[in-house]
Amino acid sequence: MKLIQLQAQSSLPKYKQIVRSIEIAIQEKRLQKNDHLPSINKISLEHGISRDTVLLAFDELKKRGIVYSRLGKGYFVKSTESQVEMRIFLLFDELNAFKEELYLSFLEQIGNKAQVDIFFHHFNENLFQKMVNDSNGNYSKYIIMPSNLKQVSSCIKQLPREDVYILDQTNEQLKELPSVHQHFEKDIFRALEKGMHLLQKYNRFILIFPGEKEPEGMVIGFRTFCEKHQLNYEIIPNFDTKTIEKGAVFVIPSDLHLVQVIEQGKSQQLNLGTDYGIISFNDMPLKKVVENGITTISTDFKKMGTTLAKMVLSNEKKQIENPSDLIIRNSL
Amino acid sequence: MKLIQLQAQSSLPKYKQIVRSIEIAIQEKRLQKNDHLPSINKISLEHGISRDTVLLAFDELKKRGIVYSRLGKGYFVKSTESQVEMRIFLLFDELNAFKEELYLSFLEQIGNKAQVDIFFHHFNENLFQKMVNDSNGNYSKYIIMPSNLKQVSSCIKQLPREDVYILDQTNEQLKELPSVHQHFEKDIFRALEKGMHLLQKYNRFILIFPGEKEPEGMVIGFRTFCEKHQLNYEIIPNFDTKTIEKGAVFVIPSDLHLVQVIEQGKSQQLNLGTDYGIISFNDMPLKKVVENGITTISTDFKKMGTTLAKMVLSNEKKQIENPSDLIIRNSL
DNA sequence: TCTAATTTGTGCGTATGTATG
DNA sequence: GCATACATACGCACAAATTAG
Fold first, then answer.
1. Nearest-Cα residue of chain A relative to residue B267
2. What Å value separates CA B72 and C1' D15?
3. How far apart are alpha carbons A301 and A283 in whole angstroms?
4. A76 has a pLDDT exceeding 80
5. What chain B residue is nearest to A264 in terms of C-alpha separation?
6. C-alpha angle A25/A28/A33, rounded to 5°?
7. pLDDT in tens, A248-294
8. Which residues contact B84 (CB under 8 A, 6 or more apart)?
9. Residues of chain B positioned with their CB less than 8 A from the CB of A266
10. Whether the Cβ atoms of residue B229 and residue B198 lie closer than 8 Å to each other
11. B14-82 topology per CATH
């Protein structure tokens, strides 16, 4: 029996007939793992169809994880397990408690409709580029956290535009791509407005902003709020050897500084929530039990995961701002 | 170790794999200045590849000024102080706050003396094997966290023995390889002994041990301690819907369970440190300020990173146990 | 000096996947 | 669907230098 069966009258497009033929051949074990498939030239000649049509079919098989290709050699069978229709490439920056929540809710919503591979670039541009390039052509969808990396948009643009989604943080170069992201500037501004009734007892507003991993939008939102209300504010990159003045309130994106401030407060025997205040970022269980509760500005990572999964599955293309909220606890 | 490592399924073209093999051999001083390289005929025969592919690789090396050739004689190493830097393959299990500390301290100590690529196996054996195999021949050093994976030692043994280092957790099969690791069994035992004066007020010892990611040594150390002192102990896989009895002390490797226990304690209005106790694993800043301080058993991840980097750079081969300690706070 | 074997060097052809218009 | 250029891989033939015998 010939490997590839083509019927002109079939309702199936030719390229799908090719995909089916290969899948069936694998199922019937006429094709084994690492077997060499006929070259696209050969198939296109033998069946009198365009090279591009065969290529389309083989690309589809590659996306599904069924075959792999080697330049100058040919196409080979990668996996004989029956594959799901969709394979998703997920590139995170780092894994922490919040990201894990996002990842798990995404997985749950995707269910068994796709196979998901997750990777981490760890804010390293070289690693980012290597991973994106290596994955290119091997997945049906690409979901990427560019974080605050500046030079990666050109790299992302090399992926098939219609299969790319941006996650958590977008930027000027990527704003046309579908995304589920935080609007850091707006979120921090609104959260501060919401907490205004508690903030009025403080007379000095301090943002601790190292600026390596954190998005610039935070600074803008914070500054806008402070200037609108004519507040006495300051933006510092770290909290080394500072003392806390009574009446100060700290806005702290990094948990490292959160602990430094709390410890300094303790050593000065200040009362958190009256003598000085804290607003932290990214809620997590432990923060409920730190010092009777830390007030946080946090996006809903669980919702981010489900929104993204729904968008990917329904093949929608939207730019969605994920909801964020101020969770008020005893530290304000 | 063979001079030239070829991976059929690598994303790198064959000729580039050859180039890299030679570069790494020079970098590791397995090839000295004016050394005679194997002839292109020999290489093509031995590896079953075309003579022209080898030629392509050697031409590339010539262009880069790394080798020279003499007609009728062969290829020779031209320059050993080439621009090639050390390439390090780093395979972690997962990234969390502690691992990040380890990674960053390693990077800092390595400085610009090497290019470091980090990967994550996420406790998945297939992924582990794929990553190790793909990397083989492409790096000058291989640093690997086998974690609690059982079947991976044969895979690790395929790497060049003299370039492999084991990190964080070793095992019986890998004990000959150089490593910087925790001795979980000893560490937990010693930590509990050190805290004995505080533990005496408790009458029930509970280890919450899911056993998926955590090393078996913890269980052995815990059990040994309890049996030595004839304590009433229990090992449970999770903390779902449990109530806390007064006089219980929990040993908790996973932070997920840590929060569950603390919240349960609060809902029962129990006093942590008197009514019940907690020992957590892996210290991090937040734990200083959770419930006035959580007692932890923790290894020094920062030191682990620098120790490892120094060992790699100096080309030493030792089995080093990384120091671990009990940090006593109010939760005991 | 001649020869055979081995080596690099060169040229040409074929086949394959990849990218672009 | 067609055309073109490019990168990778393999194979063959032959020339030129070296070495061993």
1. A289
2. 12
3. 10
4. yes
5. B289
6. 70
7. 999 999 988 999 999 999 999 999 999 999 999 998 878 888 888 89
8. B23, B24, B26, B27, B66
9. 289
10. no
11. Arc Repressor Mutant, subunit A (1.10.10)
Whether the per-residue pLDDT at B82 is higher than 70: the answer is no
**CA A320 remoteness from chain centre:** 13
Question: Smallest Cβ distance to B289: which of A71, A96, A290?
Answer: A290
Alpha helices (H) in chain B, listed in sequence order: 14-27, 40-47, 51-63, 97-110, 125-135, 153-157, 184-194, 196-199, 216-228, 255-267, 285-289, 301-314
CA atoms of A42 and A93, how far apart (whole Å)? 43
User: Does B71 have pLDDT greater than 70?
Assistant: yes
Whether the beta carbon of A67 falls within 7 A of nucleic chain C: the reply is no
Fold of A184-299: Rossmann fold (3.40.50)
pLDDT value of position A232 = 96
Mean pLDDT score of chain A: 91
What is the pTM for the complete model shown? 0.80
- Interface probe for B, chosen from A289, A291, A330 (most Cβ of B below 10 Å), is A289
Name every residue whose Cβ is closer than 8 Å to that of residue B154 and which is 6 or more positions away in sequence.
none
Among chain B residues, the shortest Cα distance to A94 is held by B95
The CA–C1' separation of B36 and C3, in angstroms, is 26
Residue in B88, B89, B75, B95 with CA at minimum distance from that of residue B35: B75
Instruction: Judge if A14-82 and A84-182+301-323 fold alike in CATH terms.
Output: no
Q: State the CATH class of domain B84-182+301-323.
A: alpha beta
**Distance between the two ends of chain A, CA-based, in angstroms?**
75
Structural contact between residues B246 and B224, judged by C-beta atoms closer than 8 angstroms: no
Mutation target for A interface from B134, B254, B278, B286: give the one with most A CBs within 10 A. Answer: B286
**Cβ neighbour number for residue B194 with a 10 Å cutoff:** 14
B52 CA, D11 C1': Å apart: 9
Closest Cα of chain B to A224: distance in Å? 30
Please say whether the beta carbons of B312 and B285 come within 8 A.
Answer: no
**Token pair belonging to B221:** 């150390």
Q: Where are the domains of chain A?
A: 14-82, 84-182+301-323, 184-299
C-alpha distances in angstroms, A35 versus A22, A30, A164, B286? 12, 10, 31, 54
